[in-house]
Design goal:
Strand content: 15-25%
Number of strands: 27
Radius of gyration: 25 Å
Largest sheet: 7 strands, antiparallel
Helix content: 25-40%
Number of helices: 21
């Protein structure tokens, strides 16, 4: 027996070793020890390409501000990051953080040349100390963004110079005293460096890299305790205790800092393995919703956290940064509620703050936005022009930082799994090419008009049969979804992912249709928002675009413009809806998805051929007709729609048919509707 014991022990260890190897992806690098393995693995940039309407959206972005802004905006034209004598802080890296993924996702030669004109000076800027970038910059914050730029560039090109610069810089952080003060951006956002740091550790296995990140975590702002205690809640808002300043306390109430920081406990969870940090992430998301939640998956901040009222704004930077945080967190935790939230932001808040041609953007968007102009509004700290659609309607940070939203969303549509398969994170028309199984290169083409309808077809192409799993997410808001393949059906339930572990053959298909039922969400003062699938719907308001001059030089380059938009039709409607039967009185009209997916009739679109703006004459991809009634007492207050009256509202007028379009297609909108009391008006639905 004594002789047999060592043999049994060795056999057991071999079995454990083999089991553990089965859970390691053979094709892509997950976190090595001592880090905790992530639920999924992001694919190298370029593995996922946009198709269908999503490619149209990215091409509009390339033809709009992203593809042109560094040709005329002085802060980028003369940026010290590209060898000039101008701005040397965050704007160059912010711009590249979106330009690089856009260029390589579209495989656009002109955009790649732009990338080269920026990247080469950065690659040549590394010093012996490990510091890099413009000589004038001595602040660590812009390098945290530049790190992500070099990470993506290496992913797309394999240029080892980018990897070497990152190694030298992280070694510099490791070997120098911590410099992460709570009163400065570099301290409040210090853990942004961990995004690149953990990626770098996966590439190199250098043991001093986790030591570097541990030092950052221990010597920078404590966002974990912030989410556990969350001082800036509804009571703090009501008592006017939320600090509206740029000091240490005010930085913790700044909306973009919050959108970035929600991922920081999750990033550290990879190294600590302590459930406290995972819990802090989800506690933070719940508390944002409870105290500052807005339609479209966002939370308010017109510059600081500002509550749930639909007249409060949300800064564009916070939308794209929250999207990126969710993409990072989904890789770490694999929780499908994070992907649900990501889709809400991508399909509502993101397009809702741009013009369809992406030549103009807002700094602040509102759920109930009935005029876009320079009149004074009740922003917490922002300027009067914050909600116009223009070049630089408030601080210039969003003009530099907004570009990452669509490209990073596209790059994150698919991820690799620990069992050598692929998972669909979010749904959109796309093509993913990646290694699966024992190294087989597979392509999955996703054909769909989602989120405008729920029909999805996946076609698998590969050189020879190969077994690997494919995981498909069922959104948490959806009912059961039936998947069809090889003459069989499989049903998935809300919030779960369905696993298809097959020996796939070239040409295999999976088809399914996600039910896009109408549903409602209770909002401020018991108002209602109407949703279909992941799309919020807003009142369609006839609009009048006026090109204006504001307090800076717009430069007048191609389609660069500042728009004031005024309503030409009434907006003060309450919704007449039967909560027990949402289909009564509501009809959905599906139209073709145009080359500007989030355009609606009456929007102004830049025509490069004619060199002028032309009115768009096509309907939005979806139009919902419903019943509404004007509420005479609901009017303007401080140049925004007043708070919706508490529902249910006593009827005072005649029922009318009203039209609703997707939130992202509505430059003017009512999204949180008062509800008309229909208990004595049943006949209106007959």
């Amino acid at each position: 027996m004594k002789k047999l014991f060592p043999i049994l022990l060795i056999s057991l260890l071999l079995i454990i070793s083999q089991c553990s190897r089965k859970m390691e992806n053979l094709n892509y690098k997950n976190n090595p020890a001592p880090l905790k393995p992530n639920a999924y693995i992001k694919l190298p940039l370029g593995s996922v390409r946009p198709g269908g309407w999503l490619r149209d959206q990215l091409e509009a972005q390339a033809s709009g501000l992203t593809g042109n802004i560094d040709d005329f905006w002085p802060d980028l034209v003369n940026s010290a990051w590209r060898g000039g004598t101008g701005e040397s802080w965050e704007r160059g890296p912010y711009f590249l953080d979106g330009l690089i993924p856009l260029a390589y996702l579209l495989d656009d030669p002109a955009l790649k040349e732009k990338v080269k004109s920026w990247i080469e000076p950065i690659l040549m800027s590394s010093r012996d100390s490990g510091w890099y970038g413009p000589v004038k910059n001595t602040d660590r914050w812009p390098l945290a963004v530049a790190n992500k730029v070099l990470m993506q560039y290496y992913d797309a090109t394999g240029d080892v110079r980018a990897l070497e610069i990152l190694k030298k810089y992280f070694r510099y952080i490791h070997d120098t005293p911590p410099d992460w003060p709570d009163k400065d951006w570099r301290g409040v956002r210090a853990m942004e460096n961990a995004v690149t740091g953990y990626w770098l550790y996966r590439q190199t296995g250098e043991q001093w890299i986790p030591e570097t990140i541990e030092s950052i975590q221990k010597n920078s702002s404590d966002w974990t305790t912030f989410y556990e205690k969350f001082p800036w809640d509804s009571a703090a808002l009501a008592e006017k205790k939320i600090p509206l300043n740029w000091k240490e306390d005010g930085l913790t109430a700044h909306v973009v800092n919050n959108a970035m920081a929600v991922k920081y406990p999750g990033l550290w969870y990879q190294q600590s393995g302590d459930e406290r940090y995972k819990n802090a992430v989800f506690a933070g998301i719940r508390k944002y919703d409870l105290h500052h939640g807005q339609a479209g998956g966002r939370f308010s901040g017109d510059e600081h956290l500002s509550g749930k009222s639909p007249d409060r704004g949300t800064e564009l930077c916070s939308v794209v940064e929250l999207m990126f945080s969710l993409e990072e967190l989904y890789e770490i935790f694999g929780d499908n509620s994070l992907a649900d939230r990501l889709e809400l932001l991508a399909f509502n808040a993101l397009p809702g703050t741009f013009t369809p041609d992406m030549w103009a953007h807002q700094y602040d968007q509102q759920s109930n936005q009935i005029a876009v102009d320079g009149e004074k509004r009740d922003w917490s700290t922002n300027g009067n022009y914050s909600n116009i659609y223009g070049l630089m309607p408030n601080f210039a940070c969003c003009l530099a930082n907004m570009h990452q939203g669509w490209p990073k969303f596209t790059a994150s549509l698919w991820m690799a799994t620990s069992d050598n398969g692929l998972v669909a994170v979010a749904y959109s028309p796309s093509v993913v090419t990646a290694r699966v199984g024992k190294g087989c290169l597979v392509t999955i083409k996703e054909e769909t008009d989602y989120p405008f309808n729920g029909n999805i077809k996946l076609t698998i192409s590969l050189p020879e049969p190969e077994r690997f799993p494919v995981y498909l997410r069922v959104p948490g808001w959806a009912g059961p979804v039936t998947f069809h393949f090889r003459g069989k059906t499989v049903t998935g339930i809300s919030g779960n992912s369905v696993k298809f572990n097959e020996k796939w053959e070239d040409g295999d298909q999976i088809t399914f249709s996600i039910p896009m039922n109408i549903r409602t969400e209770t909002r401020y003062n018991n108002s209602l928002s109407l949703l279909r699938g992941p799309l919020y719907f807003s009142l369609r308001i006839t609009k009048d675009y006026r090109s204006i001059k504001i307090n800076y030089d717009n430069f007048g380059y191609k389609g660069s413009v500042d728009w004031e938009i005024q309503p030409k039709s009434p907006w003060n409607y309450g919704l007449m809806i039967d909560k027990t039967n949402l289909t009564r009185g509501i009809k959905v009209h599906e139209n073709s998805v145009s080359r500007y997916p989030f355009a609606d009739k009456g929007d102004m679109i830049w025509s490069p051929d004619s060199g002028k703006y032309i009115p768009w004459d096509m309907d939005a991809a979806l139009v919902i007709t419903a019943r509404g009634m004007k509420i005479p007492g609901w009017t303007l207050k401080n140049n925004s729609a007043d708070l919706p009256p508490v529902s249910p509202v006593r009827p005072e007028g005649n029922p009318e048919v009203i039209e609703l379009v997707p939130y992202g297609s509505a430059r003017l909108r009512i999204t949180e509707f008062p509800v008309i009391d229909i208990t004595q008006m049943e006949s209106v639905f007959r």
